[in-house]
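Hi support team,

I submitted a single chain yesterday and got back a structure, but I'm not sure I'm reading the token output correctly. Could someone confirm the output below corresponds to the sequence I sent? I've pasted both exactly as they appear in my results page.

Thanks,
R.
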Amino acid sequence: MEIKVINKSKHELPTYATELSAGMDIRANLSEPVTLKPMERCLIPTGLYLAIPKGYEAQVRPRSGLAIKKGITVLNSPGTIDADYRGEVCVILVNLSNEPFIIEDGERIAQMVIARHEQAAWQVVESLDETERGEGGFGHTGKK
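Hi R., thanks for writing in. Yes, this is the structure output for that exact sequence:
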């Protein structure tokens, strides 16, 4: 699949790290470092502008290494970039650690997955079909 992209950053386009990678690392595009204090969130620009095909979305997800090692994650995970959005891709990062974290220009801050999706059409009905689970909520299935 080809996706049209404008790269206004100082960095290379996102790439897949391995042949079987689902996500591409995306980088911060900063004029100066940003310090993210504990429990603070901020919007980090990437310099990327996309034209995603109809029926697809780009999902912005945390990088596992930043999450486990530094407590840095994507706040609205996964963030969705809709096919009709033409603005700059930015990433909402949050620092869940107890220490400040400095985001440097060019740092890999998140990963992006391109995914197919459907749009739903509601069908209003008076009842739903019965299932084994029924109305059982969170943790209802338990441990076996």
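A quick pointer for reading it: The two ends are 42 Å apart (CA to CA). Let us know if anything else looks off.

Best,
Support desk
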